[in-house]
Write a structure and sequence with these properties.
By secondary structure, the chain is an alpha/beta fold. It has a single domain, classed as putative 2-phosphosulfolactate phosphatase. Helix content is 35%, strand content 22%. The strands form 3 sheets. Strands 7-2-8-1-9 form a 5-stranded parallel β-sheet, with helices on both faces. It has a 4-stranded mixed β-sheet with strand order 3-6-4-5, sandwiched between helices. Strands 10-11 form a two-stranded antiparallel ribbon. The longest helix has 13 residues. It is globular.
């Protein structure tokens, strides 16, 4: 039987074996929610990069560029890290370069060894579950966390995935069980459950409440972003 495991932060990724594993990266507030939204709204591709410098270089080549550090837009870039910025008609068919504090770094860490890197959010949970059911490989959910520390919303998402796939996958390690039980506890009202979490407080100070409630909605889109080369595209 296939196995599903959870890595609570990229700083723990070295403890996991990635050969023959599909990695699902989750950065719910807000990078992976942006990626899912953008591709659902017709963006051609999103190139995730680890540094602001790499993002700037792609911007100079004609990409739309999105850069976020510490939950705020970096000066001189086209887009911030709000999913609502990715709904614009001007972005349909475009290529976007993106760098964020946690999410794009997680992708950079996973892509060298994983069989495949998929992007997960509550927004595309059902589509992702269907895709993973059809995969022959084990799955690792990589939670982006916050600067090396675990966070509540990404762990909840990992738990939602574990709960949905529990009949097809063995939940191997305690991190997967912890995430699943956390989700079982909070799923009745995710918004309430994350209300005191560190990243919610961080975003609320910046007045970004609408991004929080938006990113906790389930199954808005039937799109699964997959990393092909250096670009994320919608899996068809």
């Amino acid at each position: 039987m296939k196995q599903l495991d959870v890595c609570l932060t990229p700083d723990l990724l070295h403890l996991h074996q990635l050969n023959n594993v599909v990695v699902v990266v989750a950065d719910i507030f807000r990078a992976t929610s942006c990626m899912v939204t953008g591709l659902a709204y017709g963006v051609g591709s999103i190139t995730p990069v680890a540094t602001v410098e790499e993002c700037k270089a792609l911007q100079e080549k004609g990409y739309f560029a999105a850069a976020e550090r510490n939950a705020m837009k970096v000066e001189g870039f086209d887009l911030d890290n709000s999913p609502f910025s990715y709904m614009s008609e001007r972005l349909i068919g475009s290529h976007i370069a993106m760098t964020t504090t946690n999410g794009t770094l997680s992708i950079a860490k996973a892509k060298s060894a994983a069989v495949k890197v998929l992007i997960g959010a509550f927004l595309n949970l059902g589509a992702l579950v269907n895709e993973l059911r059809s995969e022959q490989y084990d799955v690792l959910v990589l939670c982006a966390g916050w600067k090396g520390r675990p966070n509540l919303e990404d762990t909840l998402f990992a738990g939602a995935l574990a709960e949905a796939l529990k009949d097809e996958f063995i939940l191997v390690e305690d991190a997967a069980l912890m995430a699943q039980r956390l989700y079982q506890q909070g799923r009745g009202n995710l918004l309430n459950f994350v209300a005191n979490s560190s990243h919610v407080r961080r975003l609320q100070r910046l007045g970004i409440q609408k991004d929080i409630s938006y990113s906790l909605q389930t199954d808005l889109y039937d799109v699964v972003p997959v990393l092909r080369g250096s670009r994320l595209v919608a899996m068809h």
